Amino acid sequence: MRNWIFAYGRCICPGGHIADKAVFLTIAQSLSIFKIEKLAENGRTVEPGLRFEPGVVSHPVPYRTSITPRSEKHGELIRRAEMDYP
């Protein structure tokens, strides 16, 4: 399915490779700065279920998670970036 996004043959999107690399870099940068954890409720960690909404394009059912900076240094980096790029 992923290969169909940018078409193929003579009609292929010339920016497809750049878009793939940009998405990869964005995800890698986010994972390097943020700590993403399962949410704890009532002292117990809640395991999100593996459920999807029906449709032509299936999406996972929304679930709760905790996203925090990995350290105070990472938090300061995020705050500075917000000031430079609001």
Averaging pLDDT over every residue, what do you get? Answer: 86
Radius of gyration: 18 Å
In percent, how much strand structure appears in the residues?
A: 15-25%
Count of distinct structural domains: 1
The number of E-state strands comes to: 6
H/E element sequence: HEEEEEEH
Structural class: alpha+beta
Q: How would you sum up the global shape? A: flat
How far apart are the termini? 35 Å
Unreliable residue runs: none
Largest sheet: 2 strands, antiparallel
- Placed side by side, the strands forming the largest sheet appear as 1-6
Percent helix, as a range, is: 25-40%
Put simply, the count of helices is 2
Note down, in words, how this protein is organized:
The chain has helices at 16-33, 72-84; strands spanning 34-38, 40-41, 44-45, 52-53, 59-60, 65-69. By secondary structure, it is α+β, with helices and mostly antiparallel strands. The protein has one domain (2-84). Strand 4 (52-53) and strand 5 form a beta hairpin. The longest helix is centred in the first third of the chain and has 18 residues, at 16-33. The two termini are 35 Å apart. The model has no long low-confidence stretch (mean pLDDT 86).
